[in-house]
Write a structure and sequence with these properties.
Two copies of one chain form a homodimer. With 239 residues, chain A is an alpha+beta fold. Chain A folds into two domains: 138 residues, Alpha-Beta Complex (Nucleoside Triphosphate Pyrophosphohydrolase), CATH 3.90.79.10; 68 residues, Winged helix-like DNA-binding domain superfamily/Winged helix DNA-binding domain (Arc Repressor Mutant, subunit A). Chain A is built from five helices and eleven strands, in the order H-E-E-E-E-H-E-E-E-H-H-H-E-E-E-E. In chain A, strands 1, 2, 3, 4, 5, 6 and 7 form a seven-stranded mixed sheet that branches. In chain A, a hairpin with a 2-residue loop joins strand 1 and strand 2.
């Protein structure tokens, strides 16, 4: 900034860079909080940290952003590398920049959440260090990853009340019982069955398929499909 | 990552840093989108860019993050330096990391919005390059700042429907007419007076002060105050 009030003295970007060289020594990473749902459990895809400093601790799936990629591209790359999926809903949530958060130096990380159908036929967890974990069971993690996980979980709790994102976790056809189970697992509360069905009906997010469940250990329920889903930041469908 | 499946070979943070030195050459900035409201106009605090490359273009108020500060601290510092205020609502919105977004090199920026009462007695815009601009009038800006402004404006539109953030832009006592004017200015739409009052009443965000406006060029309205406000990311008040 010029100190010559009333007049702006301009500088070139090159001169600014030279005067700020000390600032250009940060690395930026992205961390993907990949959520899934299976057998009544709300899960997240984690790996054991490969750093001595966090030996035995669980870590989110992340990587440093390469010089030739932007933040979203880095997230999609990680998802593709880790799950085989490339058409997945990703949502940037928050950037974490505490000074000492990474033992390798200043690394600022941008967190994304992603919602994956665990039984998707293209889901390929080829790396045998990577496993699904029940979100409710997770305690300490490497780095500030527990805080990042909690922040993304909280954001998801808020999003599922406002937008049709929850369907990205479900198979194409689902019962309202399954949908309610999933809401309860994410919100961590029990919901009243009748109230839940009234609210879902008001939102107009699902369509009755005129089909019934088969092979279930309870009275078969009607099957529904989502009228709209979130896809890469935009809602697709009829809403 | 180890390629030795089933066994994890650990490395130290120091070794990881050495193998990733090329990644530690990014600078991180924060940009503050400081919104205000005055005379029926929804405004934002901007400065003319001091870079030759963006001569004459308007720019957000931002700065590089210093080695000894985290992202939130950098935002509060900028707000304090630029407005004199240190008790202001700040909300992290989104991080922008396009490869070529800054001519000085790779600079990734985290955007915050802030809501300021323009008539606040402590507001001191001492720098005479810094001015309030009507948001609706802003066209091209320096860097990707128009995109950042639009993203923050969109986030604010969504937040004012869900949380009691809008009161941070208003004086302590306000009429429902003023509140509706402000909603309309932010949303960019006209609202039906009766519907608006019904919705605000349902939200239970305001309290009737049993006082009337004075010195207004229209029929004096009742004065209200906010029951709750957002303050540094948390809601304070009685809600």
């Amino acid at each position: 900034m010029s100190t010559n009030k009333g007049k702006l003295s301009l500088k070139t970007a090159e001169i600014e860079k030279i005067s700020h060289l000390d600032y250009f020594n940060i690395a930026v990473s992205v961390d993907c909080v990949i959520f899934g749902y299976e057998q009544n459990e709300f899960k997240v895809l984690l790996i054991e940290s490969d750093l001595e400093e966090f030996k035995g601790k669980l870590s989110l799936l992340g990587d440093l952003v390469r010089p030739d990629e932007d933040l979203d591209s880095a997230s999609y790359r990680i998802l593709k590398e880790r799950t085989g999926l490339d058409d997945v809903y990703l949502q940037q949530v928050h950037t974490f920049g505490a000074i000492q958060r990474h033992p390798s130096g200043r690394v600022i990380t941008t967190a994304y959440y992603s919602l994956v159908n665990i039984n998707h036929h293209q889901l390929k967890i080829s790396d045998n260090q990577v496993h699904w974990h029940n979100v409710a069971d997770i305690r300490a993690m490497a780095f500030d990853h527990k805080q990042i996980l909690d922040t993304c979980h909280e954001m998801l709790r808020s999003h599922i009340m406002e937008h049709p994102v929850i369907f990205n976790l479900l198979p194409e056809k689902f019962s309202l019982r399954l949908l309610q189970d999933l809401y309860e697992a994410i919100l961590g509360v029990q919901l009243d069955r009748r109230n839940f069905r009234k609210k879902i009906s008001l939102k107009d997010w699902v369509q009755d398929l005129d089909e019934m469940e088969t092979d279930v250990p309870h009275r078969p329920g009607k099957l529904y499909k989502a009228k709209a889903k979130m896809s890469n930041g935009t809602i697709t469908g009829v809403i």
